[in-house]
Amino acid sequence: MRIRWPRSVSTQVLLVQLAITAGVTVFATGLFLAPLSDQLDDQAMRRALSIAQTTAADPDTTRDLLATEPAADGPVQAAAERIRRGTGALYIVIMDTHGTRWSHTDPERIGGRVSTDPGRVLAGEEVMQIDNGTLGRSARAKVPLRDDGHIVGAVSVGIAYDGVRDRLLGVVPSLLLYAGAALAVGALAAIGASRRLRRGTHGLAFADISALLDEREAMLHGIREGVVAIDAQGRIRLVNDEARRLLGLDGDVTGRPLGEVLPPGRTADLLAGRVAGTDLLTVSGGRVLIANRMPTGDGGAVATLRDRTELELLGRELDSTQGLLDALRAQDHEHANRLHTLLGLLELDMHDEAVAYVAELADARRASAEQVGERVGDPLLSALLVGKSAVAAERGVSLRVSPATLLPDRVADPRDLVTVLGNLIDNALEAAAAHRRPDPFAEVELRAEGTTAVLRVSDTGPGLPPGLRDQVFAEGWSTKQRPAHRSRGLGLALVRRLATRHGGTVEVTERAGGGAVFTVVLPEALNEAPDNEDRAGEVRFTPAGEAR
């Protein structure tokens, strides 16, 4: 029957770890046992050598060898047997220079020639070896026997080889016990690692994990929503293509701290978790984003970003359309009242008065538009002021143009100034209309200082306390009720973002008599003055809608 390889990652890892642990244990045991036998043999041979050297160093042994004949009851045999029994050696053989035995464990062999060649030892060399003799396999040592420096014989000592093997076999059980204990510890560690891995992988197979990674990559880079993953130390772990586009990120930012990738501001605070909440508004690179942040179990977080720029623009267009509708409705009421007045004058046969009344109305409207056109040279800004005047009238607020207003027709990017001025006027009109005060108004002042444009809008509203003057420019912050079609708290944030883009500043102060004054300074917002402009500072303007 074919054994199937388990699909679970944890089971596969457990089996591999157990196999590796067992293999390492067997290998280590083999490495230990391989030299152990040689070490025990060497110890036995050196023990035999030590006994032989001790025997040869006894002067009585040399004297008895020279003074007597080989015999079973001779003094040489007696001395050799005494040493053998005392040391536990297998045998001690003393021979003369002819290789004749003078001692042996078997007395009948005394007087016979030794079974191995004694040439090396009789030549003066000490010999150690494992060899077979008449008494079996043994660890041997042979030492020359000297008398006044002359070799008169030799001493051969043997240690039973079976004793060495017994010692080796005696060590093996302990060694295997230690190896088994090491294998058990390794197996327990492998089981623990496998269980932890099972919890981390939820019992998935390698193929499932690979498929999940592929699906995650496809999903992250395919969705039209920005995703940024941040670790516990505030470093970016993952950022998809949409997040790169929304945040304006270039290059590889993975592993870099969030503070190095994004400039200080609300967007960085939202991603870092310094601002709490859901569906939080932020502006990044001129884009309106909705951010949400979800913490992860390891102390990091995953933030999602949705692009609301188009919806915000549609909302603002809807506001503009609503404002135009309000203005048209107000003009409709105003025209109806004037027509009724004109009809009454005609029915009363007051024709001269009717003509004077119509002329007065036409002159007043034309004078108001011409006044704006003379002071504001850019057609877009002039049209914006004229249009906002009608909206202000509908709200019961007067929109005034400051006598200090003087802006030539050399605006570098009128669209940015229209955005800044339109937001400031809308806020001023709302503040003045909401605050019950006699003769509410909003006043606009536009000035040119070289290539720098200065925009100042004041109102008769409630003003802003000093503690809120910085907070009012934060994305998502507003004192007004949120409309149904879009979010609040972006107008002044866009004003500050555009001012920063032009290298300028925006600030809010208190108006004398009550209300707020917003001042925006935009360096390099105007083109250089042409040569035909008066160097004394008098600038010729062309009214909006007229040719020079």
From TrEMBL:
<keyword id="KW-0418">Kinase</keyword>
<dbReference type="Pfam" id="PF02518">
    <property type="entry name" value="HATPase_c"/>
</dbReference>
<dbReference type="InterPro" id="IPR000014">
    <property type="entry name" value="PAS"/>
</dbReference>
<keyword id="KW-0547">Nucleotide-binding</keyword>
<keyword id="KW-1133">Transmembrane helix</keyword>
<keyword id="KW-0808">Transferase</keyword>
<feature type="domain" description="Histidine kinase">
    <location>
        <begin position="392"/>
        <end position="526"/>
    </location>
</feature>
<dbReference type="InterPro" id="IPR033463">
    <property type="entry name" value="sCache_3"/>
</dbReference>
<dbReference type="Pfam" id="PF17203">
    <property type="entry name" value="sCache_3_2"/>
</dbReference>
<dbReference type="InterPro" id="IPR005467">
    <property type="entry name" value="His_kinase_dom"/>
</dbReference>
<keyword id="KW-0472">Membrane</keyword>
<feature type="transmembrane region" description="Helical">
    <location>
        <begin position="175"/>
        <end position="193"/>
    </location>
</feature>
<dbReference type="InterPro" id="IPR039506">
    <property type="entry name" value="SPOB_a"/>
</dbReference>
<keyword id="KW-0812">Transmembrane</keyword>
<dbReference type="Pfam" id="PF00989">
    <property type="entry name" value="PAS"/>
</dbReference>
<keyword id="KW-1003">Cell membrane</keyword>
<dbReference type="InterPro" id="IPR003594">
    <property type="entry name" value="HATPase_dom"/>
</dbReference>
<dbReference type="InterPro" id="IPR035965">
    <property type="entry name" value="PAS-like_dom_sf"/>
</dbReference>
<dbReference type="Pfam" id="PF14689">
    <property type="entry name" value="SPOB_a"/>
</dbReference>
<feature type="transmembrane region" description="Helical">
    <location>
        <begin position="12"/>
        <end position="36"/>
    </location>
</feature>
<protein>
    <recommendedName>
        <fullName>histidine kinase</fullName>
        <ecNumber>2.7.13.3</ecNumber>
    </recommendedName>
</protein>
<dbReference type="GO" id="GO:0004673">
    <property type="term" value="F:protein histidine kinase activity"/>
</dbReference>
<keyword id="KW-0067">ATP-binding</keyword>
<dbReference type="InterPro" id="IPR013767">
    <property type="entry name" value="PAS_fold"/>
</dbReference>
<feature type="region of interest" description="Disordered">
    <location>
        <begin position="528"/>
        <end position="548"/>
    </location>
</feature>
<dbReference type="InterPro" id="IPR004358">
    <property type="entry name" value="Sig_transdc_His_kin-like_C"/>
</dbReference>
<keyword id="KW-0902">Two-component regulatory system</keyword>
<dbReference type="InterPro" id="IPR029151">
    <property type="entry name" value="Sensor-like_sf"/>
</dbReference>
<dbReference type="InterPro" id="IPR036890">
    <property type="entry name" value="HATPase_C_sf"/>
</dbReference>
<dbReference type="InterPro" id="IPR016120">
    <property type="entry name" value="Sig_transdc_His_kin_SpoOB"/>
</dbReference>
<feature type="domain" description="PAS">
    <location>
        <begin position="219"/>
        <end position="249"/>
    </location>
</feature>
<keyword id="KW-0597">Phosphoprotein</keyword>
